[in-house]
Amino acid sequence: MSAEVPRLTEQTLKALAVLVGSALEELSGAEIAKRTKQQSGTLYPILMRLERAGWLESRWEEGDPREMGRPRRRLYRVTMLGETAFRQAIRELWQVAGGIAWSNS
Amino acid sequence: MVKFVEEILTAAAIGVLADEIKSLLSVLSIWALAIAVRLLPEAYRDRYAEEWESHLADLPTPISRLAFAVWLVPSGLRVRVELWLESRRADENVAPYSRLYRLALLMLLGLVIRYRMRKVVEWLGFSSQRAKILGIDSEAITAIFLVAIVWLCGRQMKLLRD
Q1: From the list A44, A48, A72, which residue is nearest B54 (CB)?
Q2: What's the fold here for domain A10-104?
Q3: Domain extents for chain A?
Q4: CA distance B113 to chain A (A)
Q5: How far apart (Å, rounded) are the C-alpha atoms in residues B6 and B12?
Q6: For B75, which of A30, A44, A73 is closest by C-beta distance?
Q7: CA distance A5 to chain B (A)
Q8: Is the whole-model pTM more than 0.80?
Q9: Do B6 and B67 sit in the same domain of this protein?
Q10: What is the 3-state secondary structure (H, E, C) of B72-88?
Q11: What ipTM goes with this model?
Q12: pLDDT by residue (tens digit) across B99-153?
């Protein structure tokens, strides 16, 4: 795990939002890509960064690939740390957006 | 009758061609995936090879599979660069004195440039006469080098403070 805090770009927030939104189920990279409409080239470095920061955890799908007839999926789930960081980032964004709305009105 | 046979042959040819294109696309996808995996640091290859293969298998069409695999190539490169930068930063955190050495080296280089610039210009192959003709003034070059070195020293000091 890296001590470095990941930059919360739009794409990172999207990926986190999908995982926080489905906190009860674990999602594969393919499922996250489908829901966030992100290209593989963008998504996997984000997942790697978040996992290294301890914001996500992942595990291999259970089952024998030969029986399933396909390779095992890697399933991702957001951790408490990731969820807290995400909610904090969204709160800060709302505050900034609220400030802009007030200054414009 | 001839037309009927012609239609059957055309349909068969199109079918064969479509199969050929499909298999070509899947071969290209596998190549692109292999390249992306090779770009990763060795410790990550097995995990991502399996993960990306499973993602590839989840995609519905050969074209989407190829697009996915091609997009993985910059992903592999990005992961590698990021991990390299991270390890560099970690090294610097472990050895903060490396910044001090760098600072001292830059200052020394600054002094050499300040007091031995004429020799440096000659060493670069410019005689004083030729430097004048080319408009290269050793004082100007010295000033540029010194500004660059002062800037680099400032940066190192800022990083040290941080």
Answers
A1: A72
A2: Arc Repressor Mutant, subunit A (1.10.10)
A3: 10-104
A4: 38
A5: 10
A6: A44
A7: 12
A8: no
A9: yes
A10: HHHHHHHHHHHHHHHHH
A11: 0.83
A12: 666 777 777 777 777 667 667 667 766 666 666 665 556 666 677 777 787 777 7
